[in-house]
Specification:
Structural class: alpha+beta
GO molecular function: structural constituent of ribosome
Order of helices and strands: EEEEHH
Number of strands: 4
Pfam families: Ribosomal_L28 (PF00830)
Largest sheet: 2 strands, antiparallel
Family: Belongs to the bacterial ribosomal protein bL28 family.
GO biological process, one term: translation
CATH topology: Ribosomal Protein L24e, Chain: T
Strand content: 25-35%
Distance between the termini: 42 Å
Protein name: Large ribosomal subunit protein bL28
CATH class: Mainly Beta
Helix content: 25-40%
């Protein structure tokens, strides 16, 4: 499993630890990924996302639900229309 948040794109960053004498040793700061269960298409789905993404999801939960309901008919209509590819 990679340590990348699928919602925000956050990934580990690297840098240096600095001691009192300013010696530099390499280190890595990982993303704080947490397991969360979200509802997608009416079904619970477990994802690993950053805590910042979780806060944003909780903050905008009502807006996301409203947008999903509003977008559902257009998404279904786009999927229902067949696309024809012409080969030359």
């Amino acid at each position: 499993m990679s340590r990348i948040c699928p919602l925000t794109g956050k990934h580990p960053v690297s840098g240096n630890n600095r001691s009192h004498s300013l010696r530099a040793t390499r280190r890595k700061w990982n993303v704080n990924l947490q397991k969360a269960t979200i509802i997608v298409d009416g079904k619970p789905t477990t994802i690993r996302c950053s805590t910042k993404a979780l806060r944003t999801l909780r903050k905008n939960q009502k807006n996301i639900n409203a947008e999903a309901k509003a977008a559902a008919p257009t998404v279904q209509a786009e999927v229902a229309e067949p696309t024809t590819a012409t080969a030359e």
